[in-house]
Write a structure and sequence with these properties.
mainly alpha; Rhopdopsin 7-helix transmembrane proteins; 75% helix; G-protein coupled receptors family 1 profile domain-containing protein
Length: 330
């Protein structure tokens, strides 16, 4: 999942004021800073590496060019960029920004855009599984590669547009918003924080939960139906349904982990931002939020044999052999 919107705003939002001599570093213990640096550094490396493996696997092997996998690819791209954003979070542990005004604006812009695109990808994945399970006969015609590409493109386009609109008043005014030298501030106000949380978290999560509850009910009924169908003539149809239900279960785990990682952060960020910024519990909440982006590839590795085979071929450099893209890894 992408970088937290509210966290970005909290780190950027200091309110308007005049610039003083230099930023005031947070009064944190050495153990606190060391713990946060180590945890976030590990998360950053794992996120970049694991999601890069997913990107290479799906783009390289032709057998993986399916509509569902294309959604996983889009999610992996979002999570891949989160790994780089975590690096900046590591550098901001002491409360100061060392990369200048331009990078500060770019950091805030990408953070919001990637967060929104990640949530959007989760919604698209939920819709994909909803149609596959609840309307399987029309799934091949309703969910085609062309439709998925258009949906993903719109998701990313709207994410960039939303980030631009959210931070439009701060472009070119970073120095005015900063309260001190070494500060990275953007003024969107508390109303902007609440609105962003509703748009990028509450509404999408509600849609995801509703869709997956429906998928769960239908999947359970289909499992019961399959157990009663023992005739050999229906064997292939039963296997096809099992495949769809297995995919729904796997992606259901992805969504569940997504909710478990995000909910604690958003609940605390809306109730008390100081809890996130100034307490040790904030370390775990923020780290859990970021950790979601490197958990998804681990879930794929556990549930999808094709991902394990793809990783083996990548690490053994078999992907460079002639015709490797047509290899049978399913």
């Amino acid at each position: 999942m992408g970088s937290p919107v509210s966290l970005v705003v909290a780190n950027l939002y200091r309110g308007n004021g005049t610039k003083s001599h230099s930023c005031k570093k947070q009064n944190q213990s050495f153990l606190y800073s060391l713990l946060l640096s180590i945890v976030l550094s590990i998360i950053s490396v794992l996120t970049v590496t694991l999601n890069l493996l997913v990107i290479i696997s799906i783009t390289h092997f032709r057998q993986l060019h399916t509509s569902t996998n294309f959604l996983l690819l889009s999610l992996a791209v979002s999570d891949f960029f989160v790994g780089f954003l975590v690096f900046f979070q590591v550098m901001m542990i002491d409360g100061c920004w060392y990369f200048g005004d331009l990078i500060c604006v770019l950091y805030g812009f990408l953070s919001i855009a990637i967060t929104f695109s990640s949530v959007g990808n989760m919604v698209l994945i939920s819709v994909d599984r909803y149609v596959a399970i609840c309307d399987p006969l029309h799934y091949p015609t309703k969910v085609t590669l062309k439709i998925i590409r258009i949906s993903v493109s719109l998701c990313w386009t709207f994410s960039l547009f939303y980030s631009t609109v959210t931070l439009r008043s701060n472009f070119g005014q970073q120095s005015r918003n900063s309260s001190c030298a070494g500060d990275c501030a953007a003024d969107i106000g508390f109303g902007g924080i609440v609105g962003t949380t509703i748009i990028t978290f509450i509404i999408p999560i509600t849609v995801i939960i509703v869709l997956y509850l429906r998928v769960f009910v239908v999947a359970v009924s289909q499992v019961q139906a399959m157990r009663s169908h023992i005739a050999a003539v229906k064997h292939r149809k039963v296997n096809a349904k099992k495949s769809e239900i297995k995919a729904a279960r796997t992606l259901g785990v992805v969504v569940l982990v997504f909710l478990m990682c995000l909910c604690p952060y958003f609940c605390i960020s809306l109730s008390s931002q100081d809890t996130l910024n100034n307490t040790l519990s904030g370390v775990y909440v923020i780290s859990l939020f970021y950790f979601n982006s490197c958990l998804n590839p681990l879930i794929y590795a556990f549930f999808y044999p094709w991902f394990r085979k793809a990783m083996k071929m990548i690490f053994t450099l078999q992907v460079f052999k002639s015709g490797a893209s047509d290899a049978n890894i399913l």
